[in-house]
Records
---
Amino acid sequence: EVGDGCSALDVADMILELRVLFARYFDHGRAEVEPDAALRRQRCQAVTNTAAQVEHVRAFRHEEAQIAVVVVVEIPIAGYPTGALAGHRLGQGERLPLARAKARAFAAGLGIFTRLSHTWQCVGEPGSGQDPCTIWERAAACNAAPREKKLEMREVTETLLTLPMPILAMLLLGLVLWLHRGWSLVLIGGATLAFLGLSVPLVATWLETQLGEAAPSFDVATPGDAVAIVVPTAGIFADSQGGWWPSSASIRRAVAGQALAERTSLPLVLIGGSPLGEAETEAVSVARQLGMIGSDRPDDPTVLLESGARNSAETAAAARTIAERLGGTHIVLVTSPVHVARMAANLRHVGLTVSAHAPAPHASPQQPLGVLAPYLPSAAGLAGSRAALHEYLGILWYLINGHIVMADLEPGS
């Protein structure tokens, strides 16, 4: 489409241009290094023909995108010494056109991604006449968007930044740079090694251990001045009939917290709201499933439910309120090992003292590979590494947004 400043490029034309440019790039290189004179003339004719096609497609491109190609991409790359194709060096006079062709190919791909991203990010109200076009205007509009839009963008961002997307991006970039064999082999080899390494269960266990040691362990024999056992939930899901069920991680945490509460006589606090707008809160779902609440039994005064928290920061704020009501600041955190570091940092940030009690690892079936299983890549190993790296990204996000500071990550702080 060609229109005002808010018009998106015709994606089909841009894809066609990108394909033609890559074809021209390949034919150009073959024309320069083909030893047979007849084939070289044929390749040169192909370059001439594809050049006309490129200009025909480019004639329908948006003027703004053309300016961006020249200013942002073409000018810096045109002066860069382009490497030889197939091991041969081109003449100095031929480097500039080749570099410009490469720059336009790169810009075309970047333009497609940017325009699609703009379309995805647009949150203008229908009929309002407001359709923010620039990245910055769209970001500002998203800040005022409904919570559902923000959650969708957050989920997409998490998907793009967590495994296996970064590895796939490295592989794709390595294929795009295939003519630059050095960089291509580095990217493809690095992506392969990263995939294999992160799929090893031993690596996943090591990553989880670093996160689980972010808080001192709770000694059941000497509870000290602890006033409550805090269990943050870990999600729920709906069945085909609309019923809500806790996730396996939520059940493991709550069962461990319940057993610890029986041994120490400390009140059990389940904290979990509806972060995605579920019809039932996570805390209520877990308590109902474990028989802590129900119409056929009286309320247990030793079980406290907090159903307003939607993330770790809000969970910490709710835990502080409950701890102050109970007359102390020391709480026992019962959560998954990978979640200890981020949750404990949020609790320390609001002034609480934290001890951690990890649920006992669930029994796994007998491994047919025996002692070799922890050293061989597996889907379970990749899932463990993904969960650990997701927590590291979450800690970074909380640091950037000011929910925690570096001092909160220290176990003794």
---
Amino acid sequence: MDLSSRLKKVRDILHKENLDAFFISSHAQIMYLTNYLGFIAGERDAFLFITHKNTFLITHDLYFDDVSNLKNFTVLKRDATTPLLKILTTIAQDEGIKNVGFEADDLHVNEYVKLSEEKTFHFVSSSIAPIRIQKDPYEIEQISLACTVAERAFTSTLPLIKEHMTEKELSYFFEMEVKKQFADFSFDMVVAFGKNSAVPHHKPDETKLKKTDVILLDFGVKQNGYCSDISRTIFFGKPTDEMRNAYTAVLQTLDQTLILMEKEKDMKTIDAFARKYITDKNFPEFPHALGHGIGLEVHESPIFSPYTKDTLVSNMTLAVEPATYLSGKFGIRIEDDVLMTSKGAQLLTTSPKEIIVL
């Protein structure tokens, strides 16, 4: 893995936007640029300060020893006597820094107010999110492995599904199959029986499985920090004609969308195609995006939606999830993870999508 090429992407932004440095606060970007997975999301354990000359990792005692030998970084310790603002000010004075980019979609308001007190430099709203859109070979390998682990858990969980079990029980059994592979969920799993499957992000509860129920599963795991995101819908007992037709409509929508991605690169157009395909089959369109990027975050740029300006390029990794939801009755969602190549969308998920009846 070549971290120097990742850091170069940030410095390219410095040149393009006439910035002297970039202050990075988001957990995912810090993981991406350091390949260190020990920091906890949301805890603000570390920050990066990247200038034209140097790359600084600023952390505290809990992590200092663990990261002190990271290649490409000068590691600085912040504490009560040497707070973050003092460290940034010293660097700015040493390197003559005036304009500092920051992640406007991540920096907290209180952090911005505090850091803006310093007059040596001033903050410029920016973003480095685009640097992670195209994956390198290492990232593609990890995401592919995350798909494999998740689908193994799916396959090994199917025989455990029994009448009268609860959604929570099935979620637990699935998690144990993930843990057996020394992995963790990349997000809280969706397990939805019957009418609960019409709620896209239903949280597993005490609902018991009964014959003729639809079972909607939305799951993913992390492999060395990289996420998969997969949905499968199965039937417990013989499905009704309406259920079968809805399933076929969603599956055909997914298949035709992936074919369209071979030639169409405008993600807004692709999203519109999938919505129309579903409604032309006389089923409701899905109330969420058709899909999104996957990587160090389970939802990241780019996105398929009616409002997006994103376009497909090679080496994007994406989740594509057409669906239909019939309120009070059932929902169907089928979600694959794919890698964009010069020839179109290459499947990273391989678990069967033909109708499964238990």
---
Amino acid sequence: MSILYSAVRKFRPIFYAVITLAIIPFQIFGEMSTMTQPPPPTTRISHETITLGGGCFWCIEAVMSELKGVDSAVSGYSGGRIEAPTYEQICTGKTGHAEVVQVSFNPAVISVGDLLSVFFSIHNPTTQNRQGNDVGTQYRSVVFYRNDKQRNVAKSLIAELTEKKIWPDPIITQVAPYYAFYRAEDYHQKYFSKNPHNAYCAAIINPKLSHFRAQFLDKIK
């Protein structure tokens, strides 16, 4: 036993050295593999939603639908006191709701700033509860924002337009947090594309579309 014990003691340093040399490569490889792993992918927002009111929703929807980066433009009602209002109720002007278009868009294709620039170019944001012959609280100019960025961009754009005196009168567009959206009846959806020869479409929407197309040609689908 003493001879065996002596042999173990004699070769123990060599044994430890072999074990250490065998372990070190695995430790180094493990560290390297950890260091070279790519960072987790950054989550990108593929779309945003903003709700806009600027008079008759047929007009706003017709323009927004033509913009690159806009996935959908849905006519409806927002900002009022009652749930699921009908068009007949909206027309009384007593619901508190505005006719709006809920716009879903890809911010990588069109920024909220560009989208709002188009919005302010196709309606008069200085008339209280009115767009042309359409009169009532349901026709007010309003931006219902979903986040701080949308709110800040809207307010900054209003300030810029005011400073440049784009409109002779003060801009009174309401910038308010989004609360709820109620989709309008089916016959209101894509109204212009379904009824291009309607008298209202010919007299009101066509001129707005022509103005928009001339001014924002590079942003049209």
